[in-house]
Design brief:
56% helix
């Protein structure tokens, strides 16, 4: 029987994710089996108490819960490891933003300073979100420049500003901060706004760091 390419790809992806996660978080190699076996043990004990010593039913019933718990733990640790592996690299915020779900359009490095402070642009139903990747003490200046250039082409669309990094939103919470912004534009206006801004943008001047985000590993996306 021929192997399913999709299934084979998923297995390879899980292996890669586990390898990358273990490199940053070595405890994952014993936390996963401990979570799985610990869940089975709890269900077995409950069954033994409630069913008069018939613990085997608890093991059978506990298997799906053990898998669910281990999967949740793996996803949570993988996400944290992914962010930790790129946190100190220029462009880490852009890499994180690129894992936003469909409907969000990211343009990295619309502004870059000599100190490598940068602004990335996200277009979505909240309007235009300018994300400064810079210490809070310097973010205002680079955001002001980006806002001035963006305003000329954004029309009446709202413009929001977020500072990611020292003194601002932590990298791991950046996408959630973007997703929490109020929806103010219909989807049709988002498409037109994106095209207008893209036409006026020369493009990124620095590369996004290579690493687990957004393609090297699949972490749970913010919903």
């Amino acid at each position: 029987m021929a192997k399913n390419p999709a299934a084979t790809g998923r297995i390879a992806q899980i292996r890669q994710t586990y390898s990358l996660t273990r490199r940053v978080d070595p405890s994952i190699q014993w936390l996963l089996p401990l979570t799985f076996l610990g869940t089975l043990f709890v269900f077995a004990m409950l069954a033994a108490i409630l069913l008069g010593g018939v613990w085997q039913y608890g093991v059978i019933l506990g298997i799906p819960f053990a898998i669910l718990g281990s999967t949740w733990l793996f996803g949570s640790r993988a996400e944290k490891a992914a962010y930790a592996s790129i946190a100190d690299q220029p462009g880490a915020a852009a890499a994180a933003l690129n894992s936003l779900r469909k409907g969000w359009y990211v343009t990295p490095f619309i502004e870059v300073t000599k100190q490598q402070d940068a602004v990335h642009r996200v277009v979505g139903r909240p309007g235009v979100i300018l994300v400064a990747e810079a210490p809070a003490s310097r973010a205002a200046a680079v955001l002001a420049t980006a806002r001035a250039r963006t305003t000329r082409f954004a029309g009446e669309a709202p413009i929001h500003e977020i500072v990611c990094g020292e003194g601002g939103v932590p990298l791991a919470k950046l996408n959630r901060a973007v997703m929490k912004l109020p929806r103010m534009l219909p989807a049709s206006e988002v498409t037109e706004l994106r095209r207008r801004l893209d036409a006026a943008q020369k493009g990124p001047t620095l590369p996004i760091p290579r690493g687990p985000l957004p393609k090297g590993m699949r972490v749970p996306r913010v919903k």
